[in-house]
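Technical note accompanying the year-one report. For the benefit of new consortium partners, we illustrate the data format agreed upon in the data management plan: each record pairs a sequence with a structure-token string. No post-processing was applied to the example shown here.
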Amino acid sequence: MKLPELTKGKPKVEGSSAASKIEAPAFVHDLYKDMRDRRLIIPALALIIAIIAVPVVLSSPSESSVSVPPPVVDPNAVAVEPAVLAVQEVGVRDFHKRLDDLKRKNPFGDRFGPKAVAGESVGDLTDPTVPVDTGGGGTPVDSGTAPPVDASPTPGASDPTAPVVPPQPFVLVPRVDLKVGIVDRDRRQRIEGVKSGEVVPSKKAPTAMFLGNSDDSGSAEFLVSRDVSAVNGDGHCKPGRNNCEFLTLRDGDSAYLRFEDGNRYVITVKSIYFARVDKDQFNEQG
């Protein structure tokens, strides 16, 4: 009978094979490898320790506060009474007292007074007599005597007792001076002081009506007759030259107005101004 042979080998330990088979996950292995290559393992461990240690340190009880002893009061010290704001009623000062104070402060009060300066006397002042040579050895003339003054009012001087006459109200109205005539004729009619609303050259031959002038008297406005077919020359027409209804002329301008029958009139502006008219007269005319 043969006995079984015993083979020499390493003794088996229970659980060793299972422990050798446990491996870390690939994510942890890759993370460890990356941190090792970049040398971040030590900073990571320090950060973890700090995260754990800081809350522990902050939660530890603080040291007991040092109690401050109360101040020691000197028994010999004098007690300080609280201040009290007193209300003082101030009345109105007498104005005589205030004026007396100003008189005492006036540095020129004694300088121009009638009293003489200390140590000096004021003598009698006499009017000096200045001799005037009259050429014939006459008596001297006393210059201290003033000649008589004529108290009669000078002509043209205003009498303060005379009643003051208020100024007469007036109105500024537009005016214009013109020269109007037929183009082919040498004779031109000069019309001065044309009023607003007047027809030139006349009502029998109406060419244009004066409407007024601008505020600065720089231009005059005219209403053109319907019989005028065209307007040439200076000025500005509205709406146009061939159907002009409103004509604007400046000082020195000349406009030529052609009628349907072939006649041509010329209007030349000589002066544009405002005339001063009494208000009553203006109301009577208007």
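Partners are asked to follow this layout when depositing records. Confidence is low (pLDDT under 50) at residues 122-126.
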